[in-house]
């Protein structure tokens, strides 16, 4: 599904986030960690965009930059018509009522010294919404909405299981009726049996409240279940971007192909397509490789990949809205076709 531009709730343009690296006795800057290196994406109203990739590729940093938890090095983050990176403190405070986050660790994200009622009521207090009695009624309603008893408000986070704590985090995130929720690997720390319950809860809340999600994860099977579109990220860059069904049906980038091939299949009789295995480790974001960042691990890499950075462009022969950053997308079965194939020197 391709969302028209006029329906975009969030538009991120050329987002970059470089963290300085300091060393020596005087702690001088000796380089940068290129955590996010030119990411562009959109999230439509009522849509879920999945953002996937290996650990350390910059997914969480993208989410935190969107929320202005980090101040990006460069780029634009336009939310509901407002450029958040240019907004003053008053405008940003107003916008943050509509932007919330569900964190990965359901225990560390909750203040262990506060009761659940205090935790869920905190957004109301910060934004001065309602009177104390009204807030407590709202907290009880939120807890029941996410599948917890209203009397849970008087208990502390350590008294709950991991799945229940994540429900508390979800209740806090939807307290102010936001338009966009950034879900930072919300089920990765949970048991498999609990993951499906949390995912179904998120889908039900999206339907009831009209929420949009930026769903960050490294598990493509989970992302396929919840996402309308998927962006695949590698070492700070988007390498493929398509509707969920289209991406799984016709992955164009070799990295996406490798990720999908690595998904376990519960059917032992089903034969999977042969896919070259990735070799080596993810390069350091402090000194990323030139050209295509993926070329040191790509089984099809050639000289052009080492020297020229591929742009993220639409792939003409596939479904509209399928974008890929690969010089030879769709022609990978025999390697590069117009330059010598160089796998190693």
Notable features of this structure?
Rossmann fold, 4-stranded antiparallel β-sheet, 28% helix, globular
Describe this protein's structure.
With 345 residues, the protein is an alpha/beta fold. It has a domain at 5-110 and 178-234: 3-Layer(aba) Sandwich (Rossmann fold), CATH 3.40.50.300. The protein contains ten helices and twelve strands. It has helices at residues 59-66, 89-95, 116-126, 132-145, 162-173, 192-209, 220-226, 244-249, 254-261, 303-307, and strands spanning 8-23, 28-44, 48-52, 74-79, 82-83, 99-102, 180-184, 212-217, 229-234, 237-243, 313-314, 323-324. The strands form two sheets. Strands 6-7-8-3-9-10-12-11 form an eight-stranded mixed sheet, with helices on both faces. Strand 11 (313-314) and strand 12 form a beta hairpin. The protein is globular and about 65 Å long. Residues 1-5 and 333-345 have low confidence and may be disordered.
How are the elements arranged and paired?
Elements: E1 8-23, E2 28-44, E3 48-52, H1 59-66, E4 74-79, E5 82-83, H2 89-95, E6 99-102, H3 116-126, H4 132-145, H5 162-173, E7 180-184, H6 192-209, E8 212-217, H7 220-226, E9 229-234, E10 237-243, H8 244-249, H9 254-261, H10 303-307, E11 313-314, E12 323-324
Parallel strand pairs: 3-8, 3-9, 6-7, 7-8
Antiparallel strand pairs: 1-2, 1-4, 4-5, 9-10, 10-12, 11-12
């Amino acid at each position: 599904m391709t969302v028209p531009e006029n329906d975009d709730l969030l538009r991120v343009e050329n987002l970059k986030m470089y963290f300085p690296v300091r060393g020596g006795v005087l702690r001088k800057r000796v380089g940068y960690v290129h955590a996010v290196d030119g990411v562009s994406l959109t999230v439509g109203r009522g849509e879920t965009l999945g953002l996937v990739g290996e650990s350390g590729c910059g997914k969480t940093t993208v989410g935190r930059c969107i929320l202005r938890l980090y101040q990006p090095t460069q780029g634009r983050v336009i939310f509901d018509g407002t450029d958040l990176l240019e907004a003053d403190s008053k405008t940003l405070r107003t916008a943050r009522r509509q932007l919330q986050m569900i964190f990965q660790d359901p225990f560390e994200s909750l203040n262990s010294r506060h009761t659940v009622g205090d935790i869920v009521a905190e957004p109301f207090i910060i934004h001065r919404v309602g009177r104390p009695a009204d807030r407590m009624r709202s907290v009880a309603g939120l807890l029941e909405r996410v599948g917890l008893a209203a009397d849970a408000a008087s208990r502390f986070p350590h008294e709950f299981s991991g799945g229940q704590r994540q429900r508390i985090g979800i209740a806090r995130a939807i307290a102010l009726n936001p338009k966009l929720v950034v879900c930072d690997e919300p089920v990765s720390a949970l048991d498999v049996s609990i993951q499906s319950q949390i995912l179904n809860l998120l889908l039900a809340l999206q339907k009831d409240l009209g929420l949009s999600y930026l769903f960050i994860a490294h598990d493509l099977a989970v992302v396929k279940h919840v996402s309308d579109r998927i962006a695949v990220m590698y070492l700070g860059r988007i390498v493929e971007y398509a509707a969920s069904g289209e991406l799984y049906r016709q992955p164009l980038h070799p990295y996406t192909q490798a990720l999908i091939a690595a998904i376990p299949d519960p059917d032992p009789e089903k034969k999977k397509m042969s896919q070259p295995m990735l070799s080596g480790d993810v390069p350091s974001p402090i000194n990323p490789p030139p050209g295509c960042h993926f070329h040191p691990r790509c089984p099809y890499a050639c000289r052009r990949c080492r020297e020229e950075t591929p742009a993220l462009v639409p792939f003409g022969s596939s479904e509209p809205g399928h974008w890929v950053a690969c010089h030879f997308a769709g022609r990978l079965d025999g390697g590069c076709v117009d330059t010598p194939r160089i796998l190693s020197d």
